[in-house]
Design a protein that fits this description.
There is one protein chain. Helix content is 50%, strand content 6%. The longest helix has 36 residues, at 46-81. The relative contact order is 0.05. The protein has two domains: 15-81; 95-132, no CATH class. The chain has 138 residues and is mainly alpha-helical. Strand 1 (123-126) and strand 2 (129-132) form a beta hairpin. The chain is elongated and about 90 Å long.
């Protein structure tokens, strides 16, 4: 007779499946009551397990709600910047469009000394040389 190999993987890399598995365990434990094999506190403290599970589940749900709000705000910012899908440097009213206008205005104002645009923060490339202000951390 062949020896049986048993694997019981834990879905650690899949948070929703991970939490669902633990909820199923708690539900089965509570259904079995006194006959549950998980009633031995020297092995596992099920009330603490359940409390931590509820806490993790609540925090996960809260973080998902915050993520959705953050993504909405990020998309709004991209639209204003002019880097949203379908937008180009020619999309009027965007910061990308305005930045191009500023660059062109400054190039006209600094004709012949274009490298001075670096004082505005532009990375100016002349021939094969690059002149520019070091990036500031913001």
């Amino acid at each position: 007779m062949a020896r049986k190999t048993v694997r019981v993987p834990l879905p650690k890399g899949y948070p929703d499946k991970f939490i669902d598995l633990m909820k199923d365990i708690v539900e089965k434990h509570e259904e079995l009551g006194a006959s549950s094999p998980l009633n031995d506190p020297s092995v596992i403290n099920m009330p603490v397990f359940k409390q931590k599970l509820e806490q993790a589940d609540a925090l996960r749900k809260e973080s998902i709600a915050h993520r959705a709000a953050a993504e909405t705000k990020m998309n709004q910012a991209k639209h204003i910047l002019g880097t949203d899908f379908g937008q180009t440097i020619n999309t009027e009213g965007t910061l990308y469009y305005m930045l191009e206008s500023i660059k062109m205005q400054l190039l006209n104002a600094h004709r012949g000394v274009e490298e001075t645009l670096s004082t505005y923060g532009f990375d100016v490339v002349i021939g094969s040389a690059s002149v520019g202000a070091k990036k500031k951390k913001r």
